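Usage example:
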Amino acid sequence: MRKILIIHGPNLNLLGQREPNIYGNVNLSEINDNLQAMAKTLGVEIKIVQSNHEGEIVETIHQAMNWADYLIINPAAYTHTSVAIRDAIAGVKIPTIEVHLSNIYSREDFRQKSFIAPVSVGSINGFGELSYYLALEAAAKMKQ
Ligand code: DQA
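Running the assembly step on the lines above writes:
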């Protein structure tokens, strides 16, 4: 059974109350419940982690080497700043899908640079909570 680690970055614990016009009304635990239900249907095992700390995310990625076949990450604001998270993904060589609820390319200039996209298999952004579900389907069904 394929094992998939899902990482939610900073401020995503506030989903539902945080800028709902951009990120929607759904909260993180509802998204996580839907991901768990989907995982059963797809026949994959998932673990879900949320962290507001860059170093903790780096360590979670390192630890994933012992467990995960695939990584799904919404690095949130660290997308646009973190060489450390980029290097961790490149270092562990676990195929990774980058996820964003919003379309980062249609927003402020500072969001239009992703340090994560070049080390990802692909990126899914702009579909709200569906971005996560599409990423899980891809992580479950991709050959590699
Ligand atoms: C986000 C987009 C980022 O620019 C932002 O900092 C976030 C959320 C998204 O899911 O749309 O926190 O990653």
